[in-house]
UniProtKB/TrEMBL annotation:
Coiled coil: none
Pfam families: Glycos_transf_1
UniProt cross-references to CDD domains, sorted A to Z: GT4_PimA-like (cd03801)
Keyword annotations from UniProtKB, A to Z: Transferase
Organism: Cloacibacterium rupense
Entry keyword tRNA processing: no
The protein's name in its UniProt record: Glycosyl transferase
GO molecular function: transferase activity
Amino acid sequence: MKVLWISNIIFPDACRALNLPIPFVGGWMQAGAKNLIAHSEHDIELAVAAIYSGKDLKELTVNNIKYYLIPNKEETLNHYFKIIKDDFSPDLTHIHGSEYPHSLSYVNACGNNNVVVSIQGLVSVYSKYYYGGISKRNLMPTLRDLLRNDSLYFQKKRMFARGKKEVELLSKIKYVIGRTNWDASHVWAINPDSKYYFCNETLRDSFYDETWNIKNCEKHTLFLSQAHYPIKGLQQILEALPLVKRKYPNVKIYIAGNNFLNVSKLKRNGFARYVQKKISQLNLEENVIFVGMLDEKQMVKQYLKAHVFVCPSAIENSPNSVGEAQLLGVPTVASYVGGSMDMISDGETGFLYRFEETELLAYRICQIFDNEEISQTLSIQAKAAAEKRHDKKNNAKELYSIYKDILRND
């Protein structure tokens, strides 16, 4: 079976072969690809097409996967996708993610026969929550935003425009793969005639090898895997933190990603200005720490160091960050949004709270800080649930079964 994947990232193996920077996100896709090939008993010949910054179509093969790297010019995407389809002649095409323009370009260029789309996020829905509950008057553009035409308003507008293309794509697609009731409901709302398949995701390899231990963590610390724009909910953690500080004045938030506050005022965007002001107003300067961009193994170490992992997003589908935290056994608190309720059973495999209820967020954090028995119970039960959800072999077998079903029916 010849399968073509359309990916929104270049896999690490291909990046190494071409001396390109290895992306900090999306490593789970390469892990999933390797497991798919192995557990299909090598019945699958896989090619992966991805966008890159070069000027010409590039081809290479690394570790039994063929890669096509496509120049990032929307006006030529259709042309290159036709070339790739003719060259590789896939039996089935699997588009990973509906939220990027190139996903629609492939279908427009090559048709929808034997094409399946995996839902990652849904920008057509996410755009509604872009400000993360912050009022517009508190997100006024900075000089940097005006000069670059990159205010949060324009960022939301661009996401909304991408969402229109996403809806167009899903309206044309006959087969969809998802993993939550949330994404299933939105696909159904857009295209009730599409066939929906459920398949969990395989995560990055390193997260299967370690286990959180309360004795080895840094007590009274929180970890956020990203926080660079309002949807990710950093502002909610900041609102909750003074309540936590009453009992735990040494509480720390470690945040992965570039320190978007540590730039000159001329380069600071509207969200950074808002966050900086909030930190100052709440006297949190000593409690918020950015740890920089982290690779896979560094992320594992940062998770294991945390006392609690928090996912305070305004919207999510099924955040891989929650899956990673649970797979390691890190006690987790997450906002009750999107598909998070499919990943966490409240009080059993983590704690859920309504996004706006920062008091409950603070209370849940303190419950874990207070009680080692609660921490251990959440850790053990979350890890068991995540090991089942993210089982490499089962997920690869399920995906292979989905491919065969599509080829039988289309």
